[in-house]
Specification:
mainly alpha, 105 residues, 4 helices, 2 strands, two-stranded antiparallel ribbon
């Protein structure tokens, strides 16, 4: 018998749902959104200014922090055969540092 709901490998209790609402979004999610917003802001800048260069430095600092803590915060599993971290079933790749050229490409 098929179901209209998608298959799931977990369920949340009411208490877990309430805790998630109280705690808010996970830190990695907020940081990733900030990274994406900064990338868009830098890429859309018409000319390179000191402020844009400072934002690029901040962006790369956030990327370093994200790469350091994301696997722990998101509780990424290990592939037992290769020892690599997995994200949605494929090997996780840290975010690369950005340059002005790479953002505008």
């Amino acid at each position: 018998m098929s179901s209209a709901s998608p298959p799931r490998n977990f369920t949340l209790t009411s208490a877990e749902r309430i805790n998630a609402l109280i705690a808010g979004p996970p830190a990695w999610s907020i940081r990733k959104r900030r990274i994406e917003d900064l990338m868009e802001e830098i890429a859309s800048a018409e000319k390179v200014t000191v402020a844009i260069e400072k934002k690029l430095v901040l962006l790369n600092e956030l990327i370093d922090k994200h790469n350091r803590y994301y696997p722990i915060e998101a509780n990424l599993p290990f592939d037992m055969q290769t020892g690599r971290l997995l994200e949605r079933g494929v090997p996780w790749k840290p975010l690369p540092h950005q340059t002005l050229e790479s953002l505008r490409a």
